[in-house]
Amino acid sequence: MASCTISSHSTAFIKKDVGLSAFSSSPSSFSVPKTKRRNFREIVSVMTPQQSPRSPSATGSVKTAMTMTEKILARASEKPQLSPGENVWVNVDILMTHDVCGPGSFGIFKKEFGQNAKVWDREKIVIIPDHYIFTNDERANRNVDILRDFSTEQNIKYFYDIKDLGNFKANPDYKGVCHIALAQEGHCRPGEVLLGTDSHTCTAGAFGEFATGIGNTDAGFVLGTGKILLKVPPTLRFVMDGEMPDYLLAKDLILQIIGEISVSGATYKSMEFVGSTVESLTMEERMTLCNMVVEAGGKNGIVPVDSTTHKYLEDKTNVPYEPVYSDEQARFLSEYRFDISKLEPVVAKPHSPDNRALARECKDVKIDRVYIGSCTGGKTEDFLAAAKVFHASGKKVKVPTFLVPATQKVWLDVYGLPVPGCGGKTCSQIFEEAGCDTPASPSCAACLGGPRDTYARMNEPQVCVSTTNRNFPGRMGHREGQIYLASPYTAAASALTGFVTDPREFLQ
What we know:
Layout: E1 13-17, E2 43-44, H1 68-76, E3 87-91, E4 94-98, H2 102-113, E5 125-128, H3 138-154, E6 158-159, H4 178-184, E7 193-196, E8 210-213, H5 216-225, E9 227-231, E10 235-241, H6 250-261, E11 270-274, H7 276-280, H8 283-291, E12 300-302, H9 307-313, E13 334-339, E14 346-348, E15 356-358, E16 369-373, H10 374-377, H11 380-393, E17 401-404, H12 408-416, H13 427-434, E18 463-466, E19 482-485, H14 488-497, H15 504-507
Parallel strand pairs: 1-2, 4-5, 4-7, 5-6, 7-8, 10-11, 10-13, 11-12, 16-17, 16-18, 18-19
Antiparallel strand pairs: 1-13, 3-9, 14-15
Helix pairs in contact: 2-5, 6-8, 11-13, 11-14
C-alpha cells in the first residue's frame, strides 16, 4: 500500500477565538470547541471577547453589526437584523438541480403539491444534467429523460439539455458540470441566495452570495414555494495575506485550511475568505476556494465582491445585483490568519480531505494514474496550469493522465486558447505532446465514480493523484483505490514522474 511520512511543520498560522456563541446574539465567554489536530506547530492567540458598540436607534431598537452571510439572509428573509442561531424563512433567488437529485426532488414536489402543480417561478429554476451522462447505464439515461419531461411540462427556461450522447458538441444547450455552468451562464450574482441539490453548490459563494447544498425534500418544497427554512450560521473568518508563490494554486490554500481545522472544523458555519491574497485571485481560483468549504463541514463559503467580480459578470448577466460586505464590527466565531508566502504545495492523502501533507513529503508514493477535472479542478485555468507544467518539463507523462473539462466552454478553451508563455500552443497541443489522454466530453465523469463504464473511473485498486475534492474509499470507483487530492500543478508534476511530486521540480 502506498504511503508517505507525516512530519510536523510550521504553517505561519495564527488563530483567534473571539468567544461568540453560535446561538447567541451577543459575545460571551463561550470557548470554541477545539477540533482534533495533528502534530503541527502553530501560533495560537486567544483574545478576550470584546463588546461591539451598540447605539440605540431613534425607535429604541438595537442595531448590531452583521457579517456578509447574515446580511444576505436578513435581506432574503425581509428582516432588518439577524444573529447566528436564528431560524428564518428565506426567499430563494435560484434553485439548481441535476440528473442525480432532480428526479427525486420532482417526485417530492408532485407528491406534496399535486400532480398538476406548477413551480413557483420557471425562470428561477436551473436544471443541468452533468453527473452520469456519457454512459450506457439505462437508469442513468432515464434520469436525464425525467429532467427533460419535467422541464417541458413546467416550461423551465433554463434547462441545459443533452440528447446526442455520442457527440456532446451536437447539443448546443448542453453545458457540463453544474457549478461551473452556473457561473458561466450568469446565474451567480452577488447578494443573492442560490441553492442546489449538490453539496458543492457552495462554489458560487465566490461571487459574494449565499450558496449552499440542500436535500431532495427541501428542494421539492422550494420548487413549490420559493422559500426555505434556514438557521443562520456563525462565521469563521480566514484572512490570507502575502504574495502568492508561483507554484501555489487556490487548491493548495483550501487543502491547507481543511488540514488545519479538520473535516468537521466548520460544521454548519460560514467560511468568509478575505485578505490581500484572496483579492489577488481570479474568479475561477476563488471558486476553487469556496468549492471545498463543505469538505470542512461548512454551510457556505463566501468572498467579498470587488472589481474582479464585476469584470467577470460584465458579459454574463444583465440582472441587477447588490453586493453586501461584512461590517467592521461584525462578530466572527474565530479568525484564522495565514501568511501565504510561506506555504508549500500540499496534498490530502487517503482517505480524507483533511489528511494533509506536504507534496515533497510524499515523493516516495508511487502512483498509477492522474485525473484532472471536476468542479474543483476542471476549469479553464486549471488546464492552463497543468499545461504550463507539462510544457516547462518538455517530457512525457509516465502514467495514464485523464483530462475532463468541466463544461463545453472549458473544452473549447482547451482546444483554442493559447497557453501564456508557451509559444502560442494550446492546452490540447501540449497535452498531446506530453502523452496525455485526449480531453474527454465535459461532465462530472469519474469524480464520484458513477456507472462502471464512466470515463476514467477507477475500476481497479489503483493510486491516483486527482484535482477533485474527495478521497473517501470508493469515491472514484474501486473501494480500495487510493486518492491523493492535489492542485493541477502537483497533479501534472506527478504525472511526469509517476510519483507524488512537488511542482517546484518543474516550475523553478
